[in-house]
């Protein structure tokens, strides 16, 4: 039987994961099948158990099941532990293992595809939900000088800042604030939008002046047209503006590498997806 992989989510029909993993498999001449499955909160655990009982090799998990996958896992990677959510599952020694590759996917996209430098840089991360929780530690590990987490609900930003400032290297700060308290000084090198505001076409109310020409702006969401955040960033004069399509492919490459032991070349896959998105 050909090795079976899958993604579980709800909704799932829009998922690009089957295409991405098919392209990786072709590139690396790996024989595998990757399918997309619609699940449901009442059924998710059973669906995962059934998939592995049938001999399935690994799954990705997307919204809204990442926390459920995390709870089901019998072994968590450090990244998954800290994220409180898992996007990659596999069986090893008869135990369900989980990792979260979203954060490393973001960092790899910034470094390898966006030409960003993270070492010594001052970052602002917008949002304090599940998506942001998954990326703070990998951003800290990349050597940045500071992270300010800004959120509509201050208490949630503060909670994350408290958790992650404990894990930061000496001299590296992780602070929390409301959007209105964001300020261009000290310098802001990179702004990452991890809110779900783009889904409704909204942009977090970041004060004028925080983003300028030299600020790299990154939206963890992507779309076939510019996201609302990317449009806003350009209107503020930012010259380097990226959406999260690269992050999607990079997190998939990390999952693929966990499962198959080989790491795909992401650039041609990002390029192909970008082309197909522009025709939608
Ligand atoms: P996800 O898993 O995508 O992170 P989430 O955990 O529900 O989803 O978190 C959504 C994040 O987007 C939160 O930080 C939320 O702010 P609150 O904590 O104040 O709810 C933020 N968010 C959602 N819609 C927003 C909007 N229109 N403007 C600003 N922030 C928004």
Automatic annotation (TrEMBL):
NADP(+) binds at residues 78, 127-131, 151-156, 220, 244. The active site is at residue 66. This is Shikimate dehydrogenase (NADP(+)). Homodimer. Signal peptide: none annotated. GO terms for cellular component: cytosol. Residues 7-89 form the Shikimate dehydrogenase substrate binding N-terminal domain. Residues 116-197 form the Quinate/shikimate 5-dehydrogenase/glutamyl-tRNA reductase domain. GO terms for biological process: amino acid biosynthetic process; aromatic amino acid family biosynthetic process; chorismate biosynthetic process; shikimate metabolic process. InterPro entries: Aminoacid_DH-like_N_sf, NAD(P)-bd_dom_sf, SDH_C, Shikimate_DH, Shikimate_DH-bd_N, Shikimate_DH_fam, Shikm_DH/Glu-tRNA_Rdtase. It holds the Pfam family Shikimate_dh_N. Keywords: Amino-acid biosynthesis, Aromatic amino acid biosynthesis, NADP, Oxidoreductase. Belongs to the shikimate dehydrogenase family. PANTHER family: BIFUNCTIONAL 3-DEHYDROQUINATE DEHYDRATASE_SHIKIMATE DEHYDROGENASE, CHLOROPLASTIC (PTHR21089:SF1), SHIKIMATE DEHYDROGENASE (PTHR21089). The keyword Signal does not apply. It catalyses: shikimate + NADP(+) = 3-dehydroshikimate + NADPH + H(+). Its EC number is 1.1.1.25. It comes from the Bacteria. The keyword Amino-acid biosynthesis applies. Involved in the biosynthesis of the chorismate, which leads to the biosynthesis of aromatic amino acids. Catalyzes the reversible NADPH linked reduction of 3-dehydroshikimate (DHSA) to yield shikimate (SA). Pathway: Metabolic intermediate biosynthesis; chorismate biosynthesis; chorismate from D-erythrose 4-phosphate and phosphoenolpyruvate: step 4/7.
């Amino acid at each position: 039987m050909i090795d079976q992989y899958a993604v579980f989510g709800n909704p799932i029909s829009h998922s690009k994961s089957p295409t991405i993993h098919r392209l990786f498999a072709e590139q690396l001449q790996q024989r595998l099948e990757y399918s997309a499955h619609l699940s449901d909160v009442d059924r998710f655990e059973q669906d995962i158990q059934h998939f592995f009982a049938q001999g399935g090799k690994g799954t990705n998990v997307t919204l809204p099941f990442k926390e459920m996958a995390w709870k089901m896992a019998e072994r968590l990677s450090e990244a998954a532990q800290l994220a409180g959510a898992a996007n990659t599952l596999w069986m090893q020694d008869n135990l369900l293992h989980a990792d979260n590759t979203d954060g490393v996917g973001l960092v790899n996209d910034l470094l390898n595809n966006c030409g960003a430098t993270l070492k010594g840089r001052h970052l602002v991360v917008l949002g304090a939900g599940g998506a942001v929780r998954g990326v703070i530690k990998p951003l800290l590990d990349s050597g940045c000088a500071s992270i300010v987490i800004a959120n509509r609900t201050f208490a949630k930003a503060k909670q994350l800042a408290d958790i992650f400032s404990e894990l930061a290297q000496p001299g590296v700060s992780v602070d929390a604030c409301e959007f209105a308290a964001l300020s261009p000084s000290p310098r802001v090198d990179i702004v990452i939008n991890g809110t779900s505001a783009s889904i409704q076409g909204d942009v977090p109310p970041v004060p004028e002046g925080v983003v300028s020409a030299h600020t790299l702006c990154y939206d963890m969401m992507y779309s076939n047209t510019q996201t609302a955040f990317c449009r806003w960033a350009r209107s503020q004069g930012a010259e380097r503006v990226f959406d999260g399509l690269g992050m999607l492919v990079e997190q998939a490459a990390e999952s693929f590498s966990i499962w198959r032991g080989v790491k795909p070349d992401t650039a041609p896959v990002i390029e192909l997806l970008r082309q197909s998105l522009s025709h939608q």
